[in-house]
Amino acid sequence: MIRRDWVASAVARIEADFNRSADTHLIPLALPAYPGVHVYFKDESSHPTGSLKHRLARSLFLYALANGWLHAGSTVVEASSGSTAVSEAYFARLLGLPFIAVMPAHTSPEKVAAIEFQGGTCHLVDDAASIDAHARELARATGGHFMDQFTYAERATDWRANNNIAESIFRQMALEPHPVPAWIVCGAGTGGTAATLGRYLRYRCHDTRTLCVDPEHSAFFDHYAASVGRGRGDASACAGTSRIEGIGRPRPEPSFIPTCIDAMAKVPDALSLAAMRQVSARLGRRVGGSTGTNFVGVLRAAWAMRAAGEDGSIVTILCDGGERYSHSYYQPEWYERHGIDTREADAALARALDGEAIDVPVVHAEGGRNDAMAASVPSFEREGPGVRLPT
Fold first, then answer.
1. Predicted TM-score of the model (pTM)
2. Digit-coded pLDDT (tens) for 299-354
3. What letter does residue 239 receive in the DSSP assignment?
4. DSSP 8-class letter at 46
5. Do residues 218 and 248 touch, judged by C-beta distance below 8 A?
6. Sorting pLDDT into bands at 50, 70 and 90, what band is 36?
7. Which of the listed CATH numbers 3.40.50.720, 3.40.50.1100, 2.60.40.200, 2.60.300.12 matches domain 52-154?
8. Could you tell me which residue ranges the Tryptophan synthase beta chain-like PALP domain spans (predicted)?
9. CA 275, CA 319: separation in Å to the nearest integer?
10. Number of alpha carbons in the 13 Å side-chain half-sphere of residue 329
């Protein structure tokens, strides 16, 4: 029998921790080639555990506690490539619970160290596609609870209020020249952030639309294309593992809700990482690869707005800091090992920053007040003349 007094104490500790934390910053970034477009980064790296996943972990723990899934002494298990595990380890330690992270063997050593710093244990597996199965088995063997972020992310977050990321963005944008963004750009990891944003925008009747960006070796883009009737081929899975840590999945996850998204773009890894380096240079500090993926989406939306003669704002997410990737994305040897040509991607990004269209596949849902993205992308194409996606 789960003791209600322990649950009440655990919830109180999480709420007190939240009350001690300040909101994350909203950082403007000028794009001179797009003078009517104001761009902002929601800096989620300033959370106590250094990433956007801090919000998700807090929501997952509160959801599990309210459902009666955790009790004193529960072993908490998660399948995670890193950032969610770091944040969940933080909350597990806050509640005095053991934590095990099941993750791919190629996860950055900095993330492994961060999990262990928070008191967690890392269980590395060679086959990234099997981490869920390993996590379920570990939870069964320990009598613990598998948090299952990829299933519960979209339902654990209160998208109506409770300081979700969408509410925070609109509160911080209130005094800006264009307080209601034309676009909010986010990546697809669990799908939970995109669902929270999309639901909140509809619930509050905002005209803002969501652009979700997907890296290579991820199934979300094809799944979305099939869902809006513009895809072809198998949209149920893809080969390989995403090289942009924190986003991309080999299959569509339960928390990914296509109908919450207005448009989706597929971003080559080389372009994501070129954008990562540009954002780092412009902000004066390193950011992670998923922030670069987001910035490619920002440039695509900015070009579409300018092409349609629109002024307005775009908000995207700075997901985490680059210190977690010092051994990979910031090392030339890593690019050589993965066969990534940085020169072509850097040149393509430089052209986009100068005002040219950035050449990435985009699929859009039908309808909506603002059709700038749709008008600038007349069809769904797998490849274009710039940085190409592998077939």
1. 0.91
2. 999 999 999 999 999 999 999 999 989 889 999 999 999 999 999 999 999 999 99
3. S
4. G
5. yes
6. very high
7. 3.40.50.1100
8. 24-320
9. 14
10. 29
Tokens of 42: 């929601």
Inter-residue contact 187 to 294 (CB < 8 Å): yes
* CB 290 within 8 Å of CB 322: no
Query: Is pLDDT of 137 > 80?
Result: yes
| Beta-sheet strand order (sheet of 183-187) | 25-29, 37-43, 312-318, 183-187, 209-215, 263-267, 362-364
Q: What is the DSSP-derived secondary structure letter of residue 38?
A: E
Fill in the DSSP letter of residue 320.
Answer: B
Q: Is the dihedral of CA 75, 51, 248, 207 positive or negative?
A: positive
Amino acid at residue number 338? H
User: Where does 12-51+159-376 sit in CATH, by number?
Assistant: 3.40.50.1100
Burial of 35 (0-12, 13-18, 19+ CB in 10 A): exposed
Instruction: Give me the DSSP letters along 185-202.
Output: EEE-SSSHHHHHHHHHHH
Dig out the tokens for 84 from the structure. Answer: 């969610």
Domain with CATH 3.40.50.1100 in the chain: 12-51+159-376, 52-154
